[in-house]
Structure formats: C-alpha cells, structure tokens
Amino acid sequence: MLKKTTLAVLGLAVNGFASAGTMGPVCTPGNVTVPCETKQWDLGVQALYMKVIQSADRAYLHTVAPFDGYGEFKNDWDWGYKLEGSYHFNTGNDITLTWMHYKSDTTQGDFRGFIPFSTLAPPLFTSYTAASENQLDQVNLVMGQHADFGLVKNMRFYGGLQYANIRSDITHLYNQSPAALIPSGITSVSLHDDSDFKGVGPVIGIDYSYDLTNEFSLTANGAGSILYGSSRVFTGYVGAPVAAVIASWYGSKKTMVPSLEAKLGVNYAYGMAQGTLNIEGGYQVVNYFHALQTFGVESPAANVITTSDFGLYGPYLGLKYVGNV
After folding, report:
1. Which of 32, 245, 278, 318 is such that its CA lies 20 to 30 A from the CA of 69?
2. Which fold has domain 34-324?
C-alpha cells in the first residue's frame, strides 16, 4: 500500500513539473472534411450590370486641336448575364460549365481630330463623335472539390479550361470631309480602331463562404487564368456614304494574356422539399491584361501599336437552384 501511495505522489509531482512554465491549454484547429457521397445538380443565372475600363492609350481621345488636350472616353454601364450548370458527385466533387456574356454600346461627342490620309491636301482638323462597342464572352469548364473547414467556413477549389472572346471597336465619326474627296461623293469620313482577342488556357480559382446563420453567408471568389490565342488590330478611314476604304492598317499576332477575377457577395439559401434555392448578390471585377492592340490616342499618324487591358466591374445578382438526383 505504501509503495502504491508513493508512486501516486511521484506521478503527480512529475506531472506538475512538466506543466510548469508552459503556455497553458493548446487550441485544436477545426477538422477539414468533405461532404458525404451524394449526387446533385444545379442551374444558375446571374444579371450583371457592368462597365468597361481600358488602358490610357485606348481610353483617352483628343479634345483640343492640334492635340494639346485630352478627354476620357467614358463607356456606359450596361447589362450582361452569366449562366451556370453543374453536376455534383462523389464526396464533394463537381463538373461545372459557365458562360458569361457582356456587350455595351456608347456614343460620346466633343472630340477633336484630323484626317491625315490624303496626299492631295493637307490634314483636315475637325470635330468628331466617338462611338464604341465592347463585348466579352467567357466560357469555363472546370472540375471542383468542396471542403468544410470547421462548422462555418467552406471552400471550393477548382481548375480547368477557359475560353475568352474579347472585342472592342471605337469609331471616330467626323462631321466633314476633305475638299479633295467631295467630288468622289465622299461627304464624311470615319476612322475605325478595332481590336479583338480569342484565346484558351488553364484557369484555377477558389470559392469561399462563411456561414453567418443557417441561411445567410458571406461569399468570396478569386480566379486567374493564362490564355494563349490571337490578338488582332484594324485601323482605317472609310468614306461615306459610298463606303469606300480610303486607307487601312492591319496587324495580328499570337500572344499570352493573363487574367484575374475577384468577387464579394452575400448569399441567402432557402431550403425546399427537393433542393435549395440560393439568392446571391455582390460586386465583381474582371481584368484581361494586354489583351487588345491599338494605335492609341494619336491614331495611325504615330505609326505605333500599343496594348490595352480590357476590364469589367460592377454589381451582380443571381439565382441558383441545387437539386437532388
């Protein structure tokens, strides 16, 4: 009995010495888990209200002749949409296809420029109205993996392929024509500065959500891609109303275009008998770096081709229904 008592006292003493000088209780991080095996599908649609933003060489136009003043060409806000469909299988896996479409048209006046192409007469300085048309079609085909980080934090990691078709056209509508061209039936002249990019490449991203309640959650998304494709530029003077191409310049090259996307929002999940209806709204930005070519604010007169980013930003609101198979 004495031996047992002695061993017990020694054990407590050793335990006390081992605990002395330590930092106290150690926090245990939450477990990372994946959902149980299931089969589901979802369909979603988002309304996008966005605005195009581009680099300075494509955003600035002259407002004072001969070229000592600049003004920004401000693209209008316009609507787009995003469609989404997924098949969920195994333990948190999914295959997802998305398509984002956006198109905008803008007309803005009070710019100044010159028509330098004619060898029969000196350049004509005149005012003009600028009209632009911008379009983006983006398609993603990705595979994702859902993971739960504790009770309220959820993440989805995904990767796959992205295809992008970007087009940006700016037309300078001059209100008159050089006198030497009027006998040919050309009463007005327009300058076209058109560029596009088509490419495909890998895309990776993360969807994150933080559950505030059983229904409401904060959401965030970040994605990046590197696309390989063709970038083209066309610039030319066209005479109206006879639609005569008076002078033109064209270029095309293969290029690599990186892109970044970011999104912040709030999601509301409404449980239904056969699935869940999600309502999400927030703000997003998309930018393709050096995707477009342009002759810039100096038009073909400078004989220099530069590059321009193509970006979109604005709010979104969407619905997504997740149903059981």
Report:
1. 245
2. Lipocalin (2.40.128)
| Least confident stretch, 12-26, 61-75, 127-141, 235-249 | 12-26
HSE-up of residue 222 (Cα within 13 Å, Cβ side):
2
* Bridge-based pairing state of the strands 60-64 and 40-54: unpaired
Rg value, the chain, Cα: 30
Q: What pLDDT, on a 0 to 100 scale, did the predictor assign at position 259?
A: 98
Residue with tokens 């992008």: 164
User: Rounded to whole angstroms, how far apart are CA atoms 22 and 15?
Assistant: 12
Q: How far apart are CA 218 and CA 210, in angstroms?
A: 5
DSSP strands (E only) in 175-295:
188-211, 216-240, 244-271, 275-294
Contact (CB, 8 A) for 256 and 222: no
Percent with pLDDT over 90 in the chain: 57
Contact 244, 232 (CB under 8 A): no
Q: Which amino acid is located at 181 in the chain?
A: L
Q: Where are the alpha helices (DSSP H) in the chain?
A: 2-19, 56-59
Comparing 320 with 31, which gets the higher pLDDT? 320
Answer whether 244's CB lies under 8 Å from 186's CB: yes
